[in-house]
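Lecture notes, unit on binding sites. The following record was shown on slide 14. It pairs a sequence with N-(iminomethyl)-L-glutamic acid.
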Amino acid sequence: METAELCLVNIGCLATPLGAAARAGAAQGEIRLLRDAAVAVAGGRVVYAGPAGGAPDAARVFDCGGRLVTPGLVDAHTHLIFGGWRQRELALRLSGASYLDILRGGGGILSTVTHTRAATEDALVDKGRALLGDMLRHGTTTCECKSGYGLDLETELKQLRAARRLQDLQPVTLVPTFLGAHAVPAEFSDRRADYVNFVCDVALPRVADLSLASFCDVFCDVGAFTADESARILARAASLGLGLKAHVDELEDGGGAALAARAGCVSAEHLIRASGDGIRALARAGVIACLLPATSFYLDKPYAPARDMVAAGVAVAVATDFNPGSSPNLNLQFAMQLACLRGGLTPEEVLTAATLNAAAALRLSGEAGTLEPGKWADLVLWNAPDLPYLLYRYGTNLVHRVVKNGMFVTARL
Ligand code: NIG
Ligand code: FE
């Protein structure tokens, strides 16, 4: 074997899923766990991951002090770029208003739209850079990033351009998603069909033309877009070559999981209220269920039926849903801990959910999500001796060091 650039030695526990495709059912919990391991990297990629004894010579050797090492975390669902915050809604919620009450009263998403429209692109980039740096400090090395707080052409493009610029400003891989169908904006409130036409005929072709997004997402739920509207938007996006995602069955079971399966979505998000039929449809179509337990926590809602999904053979991912309204948390460790402590996934299943399956939800599982030769050398050294400790010590950032593309990185200020 050639000499590596860097070899991480004295890894107390190497924990990684294996393979280049999402893992479902029993396979989701079948990960590689190796004591006294080493990982070597060259050219930004893993060249060796295995027992310490087999490691290649390296220009630099780093002692991990017996720590747990996992692949870098992949946050497959975030609304990273937005203007303002929504802490004012906390008091409304405490006095009994629901998320939907606030949305219907012109607050919620629409208040963030007002702030995002008013923000300059530079201001969105500056804010996004700080937030993305914070994600990196918490172990996220790949992050999806949705638009959807513009709801007009200019602002949707501004959000997506800001995401593109962020790519060079922090050592985190960003995957942009167009979410023009996040809410019907106030100026279209009595002409919703016109807004759907705008998304299909104006915004989507422009986003595709400018190659500003890899995916198109829709918020298909009560108070947002109907299944028919969502199906039309997703079909248009597919015809333009975008991958598909859908926020479904969060507030009500509106048959959204079945819609995501019919439409050919790579992943379906939330799924708190998904029915048994919906779950079976996801399994048959190979749609990844992207669960967002930090949103259930903040909105005090039930947790998605993760165990039923695993039992049905659905590949489960876990993400933060970071956004100013329903999940002001960008720490993926916390979402993983909730998926375990409240969602009932095992530590092994959760690790797969936040690495390999999340990478698959971004169509990056050939590159990211496991520590195997050929994959991106993205990994986290944890202040933890083993995997269960990572899911158990909630409430504090357990990251020791982060390696991105083979290099130790820190957030850029
Ligand atoms: O994923 N569900 C829809 N959209 C976001 C919430 C966005 C907001 O409240 O600003 C979500 O939870
Ligand atoms: Fe979301």
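Take-home: The longest helix spans residues 192-209.
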